[in-house]
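Contributing new complexes? Match this layout with FJE.
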Amino acid sequence: MSGDPRTVVRKFLARPQHEGAGAIVRRSIGRFELKYFDPFLVLDEFSVTAPAGFPDHPHRGFETVTYMLQGAVIHEDFEGHKGTIGAGDLQWMTAGRGIVHSEMPASHGTQKGLQLWINLSDRHKMIEPRYQEIASTNIAEASEDGVTVRIIAGESLGIHSPIYTRTPTMFLDFTLEPGAYMQQPVPESWNAFVYVLEGEGVFGKSRSSSTTAHHLLLLSPGDRLMAWNKSSKMLRFILVGGEPIGQPVVQWGPFVMNTQEEIDQTIQDFENFENGFEKARYWRSEATQDQEF
Ligand code: FJE
Ligand code: FE
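Output block (do not edit by hand):
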């Protein structure tokens, strides 16, 4: 038996705003009008040009997914984990009980990407931090009838991503040639959205109006998404879905817990270098040291 296709229920344009140290983000999820789309806390399309960036800062209680679109960022954390995330590369970071890191441009020019924050359920908020990294060349890609999909998380066209998602999540990067049509199953009970990166597309119903870059579309319940490229240019968008956690969310900047008490405890842990923040006491990123305060 087949359910109903998903339709567009809300549409947001993500306008540029300042974040971090001189960085610019187009924030769709996580802004005032859309604080939380369970399990998603933040979706930023970011743009950084040196010396701007995201210098040393902590995280606890969720995952950050960084997917580069242009250029590269260097990340380094207080465990000594360091690397470059280049165009098309993926970093799936489970902050768990605590990470302190910096995310800075790797070279001259403008570096662009997407960063998605995925909440963790109460059982997983304090797990050990973990990274899953995939270089662009190793991200599985499938093509069919003018549709190309890069499988970041979840499954499409019979291909499974190796990424382990603590909170069940799918993350697909679609490119549709002019005239192409796609249909993608999405688990019925999940929350799902589309974020358009390039071109213009028609989503949900064939007769609906088209959507251009930097727009977020929240989708109704349903078992699949349909999309059309009726334009003469390439259409690129991401389709992301996740199983709702259904728990209270208390956020204080980079800390996301279930209760105010847990947030107070987290701030104390961070200030006292305890419960996962031990290594923050003497650590400064090389990127920050280089600035010689
Ligand atoms: C953060 C402000 C921030 N979006 N997109 C406050 F800017 C950040 C932060 C980021 C970020 C980093 C990258 Cl590489 C891409 C981003 C926000 O680092 F974590 C808090 N708390
Ligand atoms: Fe960060």
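Reviewers usually confirm one structural detail per submission. For this one: The first strand starts at residue 8 and ends at 13.
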